Inverse folding.
């Protein structure tokens, strides 16, 4: 398998790669193989080789919302690293491997409004579409026109409704074998200085809340839709906390005593109950233990099941293993 992968143009293959270096949490074990494809053809050919070999595989992006098992991944970790950004009037065609911040910066420079509220959000564009990333009342789905992806057999392009976007959700989360390759976004012309000022203000607030050097994945749990909460839970929520129909998970976590809780070197921030970070010697087992405890506390007190924003990878969850 390795020799066949190495023969594929535009595919970079490395062995025994510490995945902790590729994630914001900076924890987890190594990947037996890491394969970075910079073209669609390289991605498709690499996936064919891996599937034919019967070796387990998984797909990752920028690692900003990823928790890797302490044992690592005993198979092939694939990444699509194509990162072109092309401006086409009010539209932007962007590859999945582009850093989201680079896309935000480029659109601001071009005087295109629509992504400036996402400044400071780490990760790649493919992951942003996969998880319908957003902030300050806006999500990337508002600007997505079409998405191109590989479904395992062919390249397919679908429009926005077919992406089935919801709050931090998309059709791609339910079809994990689908690999986002690129997207066409439609933005709105605006004054570059106005957009930059807005982005700078947002970035200042974000960096105070989530310092760039902090080993974390931002908020660990999704916020909750107020209208979907049980009446008993709604009664606990101050009206001032409900924004765009959502309630911060941090509210319920704080009431459950989350702030300052710790497992090993994984700690809940003293100033934000929905922020877990790695003090530097953390393990994914400690993170899992603390997350489970927080879920149990909120469930017991409020009858609510918190849902994680982060994704987990382990050899046990490999795709294609045994084929």
């Amino acid at each position: 398998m390795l020799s066949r992968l190495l023969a594929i143009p535009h595919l970079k293959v490395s062995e025994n790669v510490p995945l902790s270096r590729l994630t914001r949490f900076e924890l987890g074990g190594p990947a037996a193989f890491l394969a970075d494809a910079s073209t669609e053809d390289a991605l498709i050919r690499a996936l064919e080789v891996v599937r034919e070999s019967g070796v387990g595989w998984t797909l990752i992006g920028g690692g900003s919302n990823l928790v890797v098992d302490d044992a690592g991944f005993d198979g092939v970790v694939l990444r699509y690293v194509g990162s072109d950004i092309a401006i086409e009037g009010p539209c932007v065609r962007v590859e999945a491997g582009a850093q989201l911040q680079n896309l935000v910066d480029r659109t601001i420079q071009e005087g295109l409004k629509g992504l400036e509220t996402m400044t400071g959000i780490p990760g790649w564009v493919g992951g942003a579409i996969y998880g319908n990333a957003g902030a300050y009342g806006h999500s990337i789905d508002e600007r997505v026109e079409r998405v191109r992806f590989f479904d395992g057999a062919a390249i397919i392009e679908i429009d926005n409704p077919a992406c089935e976007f919801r709050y931090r959700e998309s059709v791609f989360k339910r079809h994990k074998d689908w690999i986002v390759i690129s997207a066409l976004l439609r933005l709105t012309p605006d004054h570059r200085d106005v957009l930059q000022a807005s982005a700078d203000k947002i970035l200042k607030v974000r960096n105070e809340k989530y310092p760039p050097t902090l080993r974390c994945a931002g908020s660990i749990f999704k916020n909750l839709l107020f209208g979907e909460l049980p009446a008993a839970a709604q009664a606990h929520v101050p009206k001032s906390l409900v924004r765009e129909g959502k309630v911060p998970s941090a509210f319920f976590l704080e009431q459950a005593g989350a702030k300052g809780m710790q497992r090993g070197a994984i700690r809940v921030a003293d100033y934000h109950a929905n922020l877990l970070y790695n003090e530097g010697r953390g393990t994914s087992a400690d993170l899992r233990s603390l997350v489970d405890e927080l879920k149990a506390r909120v469930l017991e007190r409020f009858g609510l099941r918190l849902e994680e924003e982060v994704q987990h990878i382990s050899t046990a969850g490999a795709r294609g293993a045994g084929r």
